[in-house]
Specification:
The protein is built from 22 helices and nine strands. The protein is of the alpha/beta class. Strands 4-3-6-8-7 form a five-stranded mixed β-sheet, with helices on both faces. Strands 1-2 form a two-stranded antiparallel ribbon. Strands 5-9 form a two-stranded antiparallel ribbon. The chain is globular. The N and C termini lie far apart (74 Å).
Amino acid sequence: MATSRRGVWTATSLVLGAQFAGLITYSTYLFSRFDVAEDFAHNAQAWFLIGHGDLDPVDTVRLPSTLFLRDHLDLVLWPLSLLRVVSSSPLSLLFVQDLAMVVAEAITMLWVVRLCEEHLDRGRLAAELVALGVLVTNAWWYETASFDVHLPPLGLPFVLLAGYLLWRGRFRWALVPAAFCLLFGNVVVELLAFVGLGALLTRRVRDQGGTISAGVITSVSFLWVLIFTGTGFNQASNIVTEYSYLIGSGAPSGLFDIARGVVLHPGTAFKVLGRRWHGIARPLVTAGLVGVFTPSGAFVAIGLLLPAALASSTAYIVPGFQTLAVVPFLLVGSVMFFARRTSHAWGPAGQGRHRLIVMGLAALLVAVAVVLDGRTLVHLRSTWWRVTPAASSALGTVLAHTSPTAEVIASNGIVGRFSERTFVYPLAFAPETFPVEAKDVVFVITPSQGNEAMLPVFSQNDLSYITTTLHVRTLLDRDGVVALEWRPPPGTLTVTLSGASSAT
């Protein structure tokens, strides 16, 4: 056992160390190429303002502007602002996310190794190394690293640690990482609630006397989400907007109306789930699939995938960061499923055949997961890394010559690097009205650069309006980047960009 454990941890350390170095390099590449978008700007602006003494920052990235705290109650940005002592660049936020994902993988492997030690008498090292390979090659880590910075990946290690400690019977210790989860916003706390619920319904936890700890984690988490959602501290989830169609008729006033609508009109929900089956299946299959038959995998999958798939917008089911937690929890569940069945014998005559069947099914699922991950990684190339070297050089010139006190209105796909200021707005829709809050307004428009949310024709229409109507000065126009400086007339309060818009 000692040799097996030493071997797997040597391999895990080497693999995760190399992965972390790769993620750091990748994040640096994205940042230097200006390939960071609206969600990065959202968190980086708050991080910047808090670090400069504004302890109650206003988020201007998501219109209408509101207090950053009301987004998801993401309290962790306040202690993270201390990173400015080490580095003043918001690139450090991407590094923290990279570290959080690697730590989450390490905790997952700790759980996997313990499972294999409990249930496997032979082939343990091979099973652990296969699990490590499936975990590290999962495309969801790299899709998450590609898409800005978000709180769910940052809080994932604490959620995983709470789940692992509950499984290990360290019930009081599980309360510690569970408490830290409260710092990472309502989305992470909601995930923690489902982890606690899964543990609460696990015989192992109940038999060892963990009902109280699991119950406390579950109830406190659900109450936290309900209370702060009800008091307006979960605005970014857009619950009423995204799920109003489920109630049939009338306007929902909150979570209970939506839940009642699902019960009364299940056909609508099933139709939407049927259309989103691919987004649901991807994280399940790439993490082993059979983990859904264990409490540790089932409740996390249900708690994350169903709400994401039922939202009217696909923005909740497509991005990897939204459902990333399914990967480690489902992998643990899959290892749990196979390890238990491998250790069981169907009598002396059937034991060998039983093992072969289980190992064959496991090998098939691993092969399918690797193929699907490969396809997803190839697809990343068409989604990210969209800013050319020439365009990133031009954007660097614009950033260097833009006053930190200027208001910036920039294309959604590259707005992240312009977030270190009080007023920054992403140009993501048409038409869109922006407040005018500074003496100088700089438009940075890149119709075909970055992971752009708006069709190039709308960006071109906006450019046409700005140049012909607003009396701007051209700062730069090359390599797909157009930067324009506008000094609004006194009394100007807003500007609307739609290709045929007006300033007022």
